UniProtKB/TrEMBL annotation:
Record InterPro entries: Peptidase_C50 (IPR005314), TPR-like_helical_dom_sf (IPR011990)
Gene Ontology annotations for the cellular component aspect, listed alphabetically: centrosome; cytoplasm; mitotic spindle; nucleus
GO terms of molecular function: cysteine-type endopeptidase activity
Gene Ontology terms: biological process: meiotic chromosome separation; proteolysis
Domain of life: Eukaryota
UniProt-recorded name of the protein: ESPL1 protein
Length: 131
């Protein structure tokens, strides 16, 4: 028996889950890095499907959130916001702004969230003006 009363299997399980968390995060981090490189240049990126690109960024952000990585999710939504702005996709941009604001509020950053809420108001105004 362990002198501290802790079973060895419990420690092994924690070690295993930490290493598997890192293993799961690595492909997401690599994907984020590739999207970031693609979107660092101004203009609309040359991709096969812009809709699929938008969906991929949404999925990336959602997976980061499921992993409990709000900063990475926030960065992914910022990339998505940038892409949607370039595409003139007001609904996609508004959705990304909502998600960014939500994460910032969860991180207890209300003044930063306010900036994105103001952008959201402008975005919604642009969408109403285009109809």
């Amino acid at each position: 028996p362990d002198p501290e009363g802790e079973r060895p299997e419990a420690r092994d399980g924690i070690r295993c889950s930490l290493s598997s968390d890192s293993a799961l995060s690595k492909p997401l981090d690599e994907a984020f890095s590739l999207w970031e490189q693609l979107l660092e240049h101004p203009g609309i990126p040359k991709v096969r499907s812009l809709e699929q690109t938008v969906s991929s960024l949404q999925l990336l952000a959602a997976l980061y959130r499921l992993q409990g990585k709000p900063i990475q999710a926030l960065e992914s939504f910022l990339l998505l916001r940038s892409l949607c702005r370039r595409l003139g996709d007001h609904l996609g941009r508004a959705n990304s702004l909502c998600q960014i604001t939500r994460i910032l509020l969860q991180l207890e950053c209300p003044s930063q969230a306010q900036v994105f809420l103001e952008e959201l108001e402008l975005c919604l105004g642009e969408d109403e003006g285009s109809e």
